[in-house]
Amino acid sequence: MRKIKTAPFLPTEVEINEISPTKAQVVAYPFESGYAVTLAHPLRRLLLGSSIGYAPISVKIEGAAHEFDSIRGMHEDIAIFIINLKSIRFKIKEEMGERVKVSYSFKGPGKILSSELNTDELEVVNGDIVVATLNEDAELNFTMEVAKGIGYVPSEDLRDSIDSDAIAIDAFFTPVRKANYSIENVLVEDNPDYEKIVFDIETDGLITPVEAFGNALKTMNQQLSVFGSILNLDLSVSSDIAGIGGNELKSFIVPIDTLGLSARSYNSLERAGIKYIGELVMMGEKELKNIRNLGSRSLAEIQEVLADRGFGSDFVLDEDTKNALAKKIAQLKE
C-alpha cells in the first residue's frame, strides 16, 4: 500500500566516477518516478551548450580564394585543411581577450602538427592533429582568427564579423564532446519505482567533465531563478531545513569524496566518520582543528573548498537550522 505524501522525495545520493581526465559518470538518486527524466533532459542540453570553449572562426590563406581552392604543393585541399583546423582545440590566453588573430608561415617538406600552432596568444590542447602535409617546394602562409564562445555558431552567421577576404568557419565552441544519460530503477523502502540518473560525460580536455556538469547546473539555476523573481517566490528547500535562505538541501548532503580533496585531507575526515559537507559546515575552525591527524595544510584546503561552495567564514547557521541539518545527516548515516 502506497503512503500518502505531502512533498516529493528529495534525492540524497550523488556519485562521481572519474574514468579519465576527459571522461566521467555522474550518478544521482533516488528520484520520484518521472522526476529523473524531467531533470536529466534539460541538463543534457545545458551540458552541450553552457560551457565556454574556443574555436577558429575564420582563416585567410595566401593563394586561396575560397574553401574549394587548393595550394600548390600541399597534399590537402583547402576544405580538408579547414576540417583539420576545426579538429584542434584551442585556448586563448587570459590576457589576450575573447578574439585573437594569429599568422603562420610554414615551408615543406613535412607534416605540420597542431602543436606547432602554439603561440604567445594561443594554447593548443590537442597537439597531435595533422594540420597539413607539404612537399619540398611548398609554402603555406595563413592567418587564423580564434574566438571564445558557447555552443555552435554556423559559418553564415559569422561572415559579417570577420574580414571580407577571409573564409568563415563553422565554430564548435563547446568543450563537451559527449553528454548522454540513462534512467535506472532503484529500490527505496520496498518501492522499486524510484529512479537513478546516470550521466556519461566526455570533454575535449579543455575542462573536466565535472566542471562541465557544474556549469550546466549553474546555468539551469540561473535560468530558473527568473520565475522566482517575477512571482516573488522563495525557491529554497524548506521541508527538512528551514531558514537556510537560498542554499538547497543537496548543497549540504554532498559526499566529501566529491570535493576533490587531497588523499591526506580526505583520509583524516573519513577516519573521523565525516561523510557529508554539511558536517563540515556545522563545525567551527576549532572543531576542525581538533580532527585527528588534520594538519594546517589540510585545514586550509578544507576551508578553501567550503568557501568555494559558498560556505566561507562569514556563513552562519542558526541553531534551529543546525539542529535540523544534524538530524537529516544522522538519518542518512543510519
- State the total count of DSSP E strands: 14
State the fourth-level CATH superfamily of the largest domain. Answer: DNA-directed RNA polymerase, insert domain
The CATH level-2 architecture of the largest domain is identified as: Beta Complex
Q: List the secondary-structure elements in sequence, H or E.
A: EEHEHEEEEEEEEEEEHHHHHH
CATH class of the largest domain: Mainly Beta
SS content category: alpha+beta
Low-confidence stretches at least 5 residues in length (pLDDT < 50)? 236-248
Distance between the termini: 24 Å
Strand content: 25-35%
CA radius of gyration is: 25 Å
Largest sheet: 4 strands, antiparallel
Remind me, CATH topology of the largest domain? RNA Polymerase Alpha Subunit, Chain A, domain 2
Gross geometry: elongated
How do the strands of the widest beta sheet line up side by side?
1-2-14-13
Helix content: 25-40%
Task: Write down the overall mean pLDDT.
Answer: 87
